[in-house]
Design brief:
The chain contains no helices and 28 strands. The chain has strands spanning 50-55, 66-74, 80-89, 92-96, 99-101, 108-113, 116-121, 133-141, 150-159, 169-177, 188-201, 204-214, 220-228, 241-246, 251-255, 262-271, 275-285, 291-296, 298-299, 304-310, 315-321, 328-336, 341-349, 354-358, 372-379, 385-391, 396-400, 402-403.
């Protein structure tokens, strides 16, 4: 039953002894081995699965406070599971960091060893027969203030439950968590200039999907604000202003609801470092396939943009947002394909509002119909964000503007 070994038990021990966990010191921490000590020849981190440690609901740890840890071991071929985890001072990997504890001693045990601690599953915690993944949770009390960052190391055995060591896959992972300074991480604002959903006309429906990814190894808080074209908060499910916490490596989808009415506005996303995102617009028209367009988020601190357009047999739509708290005047200049200025104009945008229209419907720009060129937008004071959408007879796509 060696495939039941928690991460890398000593092969000399009888198999039944391994159900309650591997020998200590096999987490993959500096100076330690892992499951391959016994599972000789087993692939390390190459079995098509993964292992992850999460500090739940926190991006950093609070000194002296209790936090919850989650270990997830995934592998589509596995049917029995084991892990071992330890917490160490990042700057001194042989030094214990805080105190691990089990909420359910039937599935998890915690033992001290050489002044450090190890946590692993019990025999019940191997979750025999469970497919795809196993999850364990435990409590961790953080060290006192001034300890510095902590690194959690873990190794896991995703076993196929065939009662031998063959066919098992071994995984290792780590998570480094900084000590909280009592201050929230700084957030940077981005804008999605167009945000639409619902039924615009008979047989013409729109949805918007927002995707965000946390590429860091720490939990990451982010903020969203949904606003209408006039700058007022949208009555969006979950509230016009929302805070989301992304787990390490998490990808979040924010989906607009089905709606009989049509809603048009924009979104401000305040993101910490390491979190990125984009949006997908989908147009559904009765009698033809759906169309989609991908839109990147725009920085909120720019005051000048250039939009390249091609209105020869096409129509370019425009969305211009004033994300600031004061009214602005947006000046624009049209240039033809040869670079010559052909028209200009301006539009006033109240605080938080958005202009949305066909490009050739803007004052002074009727002459661009049937032509290609570029439009330059600038605010003498304040900032703005610009997005183009190009429509043909039966398709549309996004047209990104570039910062001038």
């Amino acid at each position: 039953m060696k495939n039941l070994l928690l991460i890398g038990v000593l092969c000399a021990l009888p198999a039944w002894a391994n159900l309650g966990g591997a020998d200590f010191g096999l987490t993959g921490a500096p100076g330690e081995g892992n499951c391959t000590v016994c599972h000789i020849g087993a692939p390390l981190n190459e079995g098509g699965g993964s292992m992850k440690i999460e500090l739940l609901n926190a991006a950093t740890y609070t000194p002296g406070q209790q936090h919850r840890l989650r270990i997830t071991l995934a592998d589509p071929a596995a049917r029995r599971w084991g892990f071992q985890l330890t917490a160490r001072r990042t700057a001194a990997p042989n030094e214990r960091a805080g105190t691990l504890a089990s909420e359910n001693v039937q599935i998890l045990r915690v033992d001290p060893f050489n002044n450090v601690q190890y946590a692993n599953q019990t025999s019940l915690g191997t979750q025999s027969g469970t497919a795809d993944q196993a999850v364990w949770e435990m409590l961790w009390t953080a060290p006192a203030a001034g300890f510095g960052s902590v690194t959690f190391y873990a190794a896991g055995n995703a076993a196929n439950n065939n009662l031998t060591t063959s066919g098992d896959n071994i995984y290792t992972t780590s998570l480094t968590v900084a000590e909280s300074t009592g201050e929230a991480p700084p957030l940077t604002s981005f804008v999605l200039p167009q945000f639409v959903y619902g039924t615009q006309a008979a047989g013409n429906r729109w949805t918007t999907q927002l995707y965000f990814h946390n590429a860091t190894q720490a939990a990451a808080p982010m903020e969203l604000r949904f606003r209408g074209d006039d700058g007022a908060d949208l009555n969006f499910p979950g509230g016009a202003q929302q805070t989301r916490n992304l787990a390490p490596g998490e990808t979040l989808l924010v989906q607009t609801p089905e709606a009989a009415s049509f809603f048009s506005g924009w979104v401000e996303a305040r993101l910490p470092a390491g979190v990125s995102g984009y949006a997908v617009f989908r147009q559904s028209v009765t009698g033809r396939d759906d169309n989609e367009a991908v839109v990147l988020l725009s920085p909120v601190d720019k005051n000048a943009w250039t939009l390249i357009h091609d209105d020869s047999g096409l129509i370019t739509g425009i969305a211009v947002v004033n994300p600031g708290g004061a009214a602005i005047t947006v000046d624009y200049t049209a240039r033809d394909a040869a670079g010559q200025a052909t028209a200009s104009g301006s539009v006033n945008l109240p605080a938080g509002s958005k202009l949305v229209n066909a490009l050739n419907a803007l004052q002074g720009l009727s002459g661009i119909a049937g032509r290609r060129g570029a439009i330059e937008f600038r605010a003498a004071s304040g900032t703005l964000a610009v997005l183009g959408l190009r429509f043909g007879a039966s398709a549309f796509t996004s047209v990104p503007a570039s910062v001038r």
